[in-house]
Amino acid sequence: MTIYLAADHAGFELKEKIKFWLQKQGHEIKDFGAFSFDPADDYPDFMNPAAKELAVVLAKNPENNRGIFFGGSGQGEAMVANRHKGVRAAVLYKYDEDIIKLSREHNNANVLCLGARFLKEKEVIRAVELWIKTSFSNEPRHKRRIAKF
């Protein structure tokens, strides 16, 4: 699977750790930055390019491409990502298996936005692992709802 990563200063350190872990799992990574810690950077500068390219790729191959965006809370990152057609970003700032699974099973989320200030590295690894392996249910009611976006 190809995974698109983006982070601002608040998510930079966690992104770097998760990037290394994802590569060890055999995933291809497309990293849109930040590439260094800069406390004055702005999250849209990283999320917009990542979500824009991901949206193009998802239109052709939605099954083998996902995004993981890192910020302080994940909220702003999701707001930016969700402005791009075909991108469905879910926010996680507290480890909860049900929320992780439902974001995939019911909403077919293709971007996971993580609140780096609220999650520990081990929680993020567990969350990302579960999120990647969870499939969309393909139930008609969920397909119908997503089509209304």
UniProtKB/TrEMBL annotation:
GO biological process, one term: D-allose catabolic process
Gene Ontology MF, one: ribose-5-phosphate isomerase activity
Keyword list, A-Z: Isomerase
Residues holding D-ribulose 5-phosphate: D8, H9, G72, S73, G74, Q75, G76, N107, R117, R141, R145
Short name of one Pfam family: LacAB_rpiB
Superkingdom in the source lineage: Bacteria
Gene3D superfamilies xrefs: Sugar-phosphate isomerase, RpiB/LacA/LacB
NCBIfam families: PRK05571.1, rpiB_lacA_lacB
Family statement drawn from the similarity comment of this UniProt entry: Belongs to the LacAB/RpiB family.
PANTHER family reported in the protein's UniProt record: DNA DAMAGE-REPAIR_TOLERATION PROTEIN DRT102, RIBOSE-5-PHOSPHATE ISOMERASE B
Protein's name according to its UniProt entry: Ribose-5-phosphate isomerase
Source organism (scientific name): Candidatus Harrisonbacteria bacterium RIFCSPLOWO2_01_FULL_44_18
